[in-house]
């Protein structure tokens, strides 16, 4: 009954750590082993309950047989008192048969009790081992998940696409910097152009004033000549 459980426990105890390095999905395999172990525990519980039921039934039969033996003894005495020797003899014969049957029932009951004790002890051990394996399963599942994440990250870092994306990013960054530089240069040129225009306008403005000034001078000179 417990052979499969022993085999499963052996695999879980000695080979479960190696599953991480194999091609199988370790988490899937661990869960399958735990399901197998749990199935064995359920079957063991059913077998134990069945033997316990038989033990109780045998116990009742032992008690009933003992009472019936006492009854036959009493009936044999009463038959003799009533001068029914033949009936007393039949009661004693049945008593003897019941005594032999009682011996067999007691042997069966004793054997059943031993089986119940053994099954309960094995069931206790199985459940303890299952809890131990369950803790190992949780630990190994966490390790397996961590290993997968680490592998995924390492693959991403070593992937050529990632390197290409990085180069593309750097290229776009350089392009943005170039565009910013061009914008700054354009702005500087615009400021320079504005300054030139302003200077030219100022120069043109100064020329008009000079011309006006010359005209005023000439006008004054003419007025002086007339007055003289």
TrEMBL record:
InterPro entries, A to Z: PspA_VIPP1 (IPR007157)
Superkingdom of the source species: Bacteria
Residues in coiled coil: 77-226
Keywords of this entry: Coiled coil
Entry-linked PANTHER family: MEMBRANE-ASSOCIATED PROTEIN VIPP1, CHLOROPLASTIC, PHAGE SHOCK PROTEIN A
Family, per entry: Belongs to the PspA/Vipp/IM30 family.
Name of the protein this chain belongs to: PspA/IM30 family protein
Lineage of producing organism: Bacteria, Bacillati, Bacillota, Bacilli, Bacillales
